[in-house]
Write a structure and sequence with these properties.
The structure is a homodimer.
Chain A: E1 2-6, H1 10-21, E2 25-30, H2 34-44, E3 47-49, E4 61-64, H3 68-78, E5 84-87, E6 100-105, E7 122-126, H4 129-140, E8 146-148, H5 151-181, H6 190-202, H7 218-227, H8 232-255
Parallel strand pairs in A: 1-2, 1-4, 2-3, 4-5, 5-6, 7-8
Antiparallel strand pairs in A: 6-7
């Protein structure tokens, strides 16, 4: 397929590479910043443009991967060409119109870190059954994990991803801070972080919870809270998440 | 070395296997529950006992891996033999006495899941320099990652491990719950969880934070809070961690 990419951020970069590796032709890469467009375009053998008026309408599909707030306007501009228009946003509903769809990769991307795109879950949605089938075909050329997900479900996924990715990372950063304050090497915690994520690959997290809260080990929890005496916000995080663990455990036990 | 293990839980089980693989002899395994002692003893070619009076005093070192509350009493009972007595607890100070030490593995263990023990950070402490050297030698036979950590630092590590392991898992469980409520497959999130932990192996988490909070994307945060309208506790977690991310980012920027 001939694909035009609107955007040159992390998602656009990784998706462009995946499309190219799968044998698709990237016709153009658009970014309002020409240098950004040119860098990505160079990597995938496309033409860089920084003005939507320079769009080549001969493309089969436009993939919009820009900030959520900018999607609607870009889509409106492109709609005159009557081609398939996809966006890649988890937080944005299906675009209005007859030939629209979503290709939401549920992964965190950094520009500098390689990702095996074939393993990235791709959540797809289309404006009708035929469009959805077409998007599914396209999605399957770059990932083994394609899921049909409607806009309401996608919103939940986007929220859940904050709990599964952004917030755990914030907790890692808290741990990093505690270690740094006490001249301890962050490498001490890295295997633990990895193993915890690894466990979630094979189990359901609710079934493998460990730590003082699930043991109702009040003594250890009080000791921990005391160690955080000069950081009331961390005490709050500690208490709230410990309470959550206990409630979750109570609910599981009540279910059995 | 000839080692006697007091305890048959997850830590004792994994450590016993590591000792055995490193060529040490496990003399006895003690558990108040004979079946538990026997199961572990069988795996490592040791004798099982369920009464501390049956201890063979000819061992070189006792490794106590029991619940924190029970460590002191067991150690007192064993102290009559005047051998090296180690415990494996992150939350417990060095035992009193002349031949005591700590061998704290900073990892989460499940009985059913293999762990490459050579990668497990082992935090060691001894009652004097000579004992510490001896413990370090022993520790290096089973792990490549041995760190000298005093009791005050170990407490911090234990606390930090809650933030790096137990709390992220609780957040994974929240995400799991959100998906289940909306008939979504938890497999959708597993690659994201893995990649987030993977990033922390190569970067410092505070440097690679992503998500709506660090972008100050109020619109998305408000949408997320609205989706959690019927779960005020999750709203609280969401708000507290989002505020934390913003504060952390402000602090980093102020530092630059």
């Amino acid at each position: 397929m001939e694909i035009t990419l609107i955007g040159s951020g992390n998602v656009a970069t990784h998706m462009a590479a995946a499309f190219k590796n799968a044998g698709h032709k990237i016709a153009q890469v658009y970014s309002p910043n020409y240098q950004n467009a040119a860098l990505l375009a160079y990597h995938v053998g496309a033409t860089a443009i920084d003005n939507l008026n320079d769009i080549d309408p001969q493309t089969a599909v436009f993939v919009i991967s820009v900030k959520d707030d900018a999607i609607a306007e870009v889509a409106k501009t492109l709609s005159v060409y009557q081609k398939l228009i996809l966006h890649t946003s988890g937080a944005t509903a299906l675009l209005p119109g007859a030939n629209t769809g979503v290709l939401y990769p549920l992964q965190t991307f950094s520009k500098t870190k390689e990702v095996d795109f074939s393993q990235v879950p791709l959540c797809i949605e289309g404006s009708d059954e035929q469009i959805t089938d077409l998007i599914e075909q396209l999605a399957r050329t770059i990932s083994k994990n394609v899921y049909r997900v409607d806009s309401a479900q996608r919103k939940i996924l986007h929220l859940a991803a904050v709990f599964a990715c952004n917030f755990p990372n914030a907790l890692y950063a808290i741990a990093q801070g505690l270690l740094a304050e006490h001249q301890l090497d962050f490498n001490l915690l890295r295997p633990l972080i990895m193993e915890t994520a690894q466990k979630a690959q094979e189990s359901f997290p609710a079934d493998v919870q460990t730590g003082p809260a699930i043991r109702r080990d009040e003594k250890t929890m009080n000791n921990h809270l005391q160690l955080l005496n000069n950081q009331p916000e961390l005490q709050q995080v500690y208490q709230l998440l410990s309470q959550r663990i206990i409630k979750m455990d109570d609910a599981i036990k009540a279910d059995k």
